[in-house]
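REQUEST FORM: STRUCTURE PREDICTION
Request ID: SP-0412
Submitted by: Lab K.M.
Chain count: 1
Length (residues): 374
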Amino acid sequence: MASASRTFARAAFKSTPATSALTISTRNTGFTIRQTFRQQSRRGYASEPTKSSSSGLYISVGALAVAGGAGYYFFSQGNGSLLSGSAGETKGIFTPKFEDYQKVYNAIAERLEEKEDYDDGSYGPVLVRLAWHCSGTYDKETGTGGSNGATMRFYPESGHGANAGLVAARDFLEPIKQKFPWITYSDLWILGGVCAIQEMQGPTIPYRPGRMDKDMGACTPDGRLPDAKQGNKHLRDIFYRMGFNDQEIVALSGAHALGRCHSTRSGFEGPWTFSPTVVTNEYFKLLLDEKWTVKKWDGPKQYEDMTSKSLMMLPTDMALVSDKAFKQWVQKYAKDEALFFKDFSTVVTKLFELGVPFAETTEQGPMVFKPTTA
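STATUS: Completed
RESULT:
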């Protein structure tokens, strides 16, 4: 049902120009129908989510994961400890296979829409943001940061302004970690992002395991993630440091088709699109087709659409259409969703693998998971 409602929403959003009143009505109708489907087909899960926060937990996990990062996981006989989950109650070395990772994927997918009152009814967007932010700390010059480490478990990185609210994603994944203790936090967080993108009707994202968890000594300094209040120079400074070019910057920005900002977290407020739980190229269409004005409110500078006044764009979003080199890619992706999906898959895969020494940690090739909504 959830898949059918998203398919309906995607088709409805493409039927008319973004600025028309009919489109807004259709989008709102699609959202209402999608919510109705959710109410009638909520997915269940085997156990209640943990009530404790994952932030700052398990300083000793880094030592354990030195073994885990190699793709081989050590276990000792016991009851419900590291042996639980798909590994079974066995001694010695456990080498997870594709089907083990697919089970983790499925467990995440089954819980994405378990709480209708969380944002727009899905944890998908916040899981994408977690995977994005733990990867986007990479510095190609020093080789530090990136998805290899899951250092956002620790303060001060968990308290960086750009990571506000991500405790929700980390806590969401904690019961999955308990069910499948053989997977590192680093691999789990990225797998959560891959699952979320695919389950929200996005493109296929190849996945390679082999990340090692690290301790708080590997936390990256604040300021490595984009500051939404800045412009095009800032975007290039941030993304060039990771090793991305202008086209890749725009493709990655397409993730703003998902989710929303919260005034209690980032200070900004509102969704970017009318379909915040469906991956589309609508973000690019709206940037070009809508008229955006500075919102009059007590918060930081952001923009609102003149048609419905229910959507928002950040200064970094508007930089994509004010900069000629960026805008050409916005125009291409607005016209061709298939091209956006292809480029987005490529660049997100690159992002999620920043800082991971795969040659040293695993011999496994990319995995392609089957979505549960297929």
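NOTES: The chain has two domains: 61-225+347-361, 227-345.
Reviewed by: T.R.
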